[in-house]
Design goal:
By secondary structure, this protein is an alpha+beta fold. It has two domains: 1-76; 108-164, Nucleotide Exchange Factor Grpe, Chain A, domain 2 (Roll), CATH 2.30.22. It contains two helices and six strands. The protein has a three-stranded antiparallel sheet. A hairpin with a 2-residue loop joins strand 4 and strand 5.
């Protein structure tokens, strides 16, 4: 009988160890899953931070570019006005290079002449009688945009239909 009792105690000890090991294993698996979820949340937060920083950098770069170009537009106006009175080839070359540099920065002139007046692109300085209503008949100051965003509104004269 002694021989029979010993194996029973060993079986009980082994069973206790197996039960203790399986509860430790379950606890480790739960802790592992918790750490995995925490890692994934932290990784997602980091990716969101990177995305926000990229957007902020892009926004700041565009603001600086817009402000810089706004400072250059009066110079362009003066060069174009000087070309009206002076036909010097050097002045024409400088004006052309200046315009090309602005185009390289993404600056585009907004064509207003002959189009319907749009207050998002131009400011009406004067209204004169005309055949059609709300058509731009003269551009006093050109309008410009960068990447589809108006950076300077044009100053225009608009036609007003004659009332009978």
């Amino acid at each position: 009988m002694n021989a029979n009792k010993k194996p029973k105690k060993t079986e009980q000890v082994e069973e206790k160890v197996v039960i203790e090991d399986s509860s430790a294993l379950v606890e480790c698996k739960a802790q592992n899953e918790s750490l995995k979820q925490q890692y994934l949340r932290t990784l997602a937060d980091y990716k969101n931070l990177e995305h926000r920083m990229d957007q902020e950098r892009y926004r700041m770069r565009n603001n600086v570019k817009r402000e810089f170009v706004e400072q250059l537009l009066p110079i362009l106006d003066n060069l174009e006005q000087a070309e009206v009175f002076n036909t010097d080839p050097g002045l024409r070359m400088v004006n052309s290079l200046f315009q090309q540099s602005l185009q390289n920065l993404g600056v585009e002139e907004i064509n207003l002449l002959g189009t319907e007046f749009d207050p998002a692109k131009a400011e009406a300085i004067e209204a004169i009688e005309g055949k059609e209503d709300n058509i731009v008949v003269e551009v006093l100051q050109k309008a410009y945009q960068i990447d589809g965003t108006v950076i300077r509104h044009g100053k225009v004269t608009v036609s007003k239909k004659k009332e009978n």
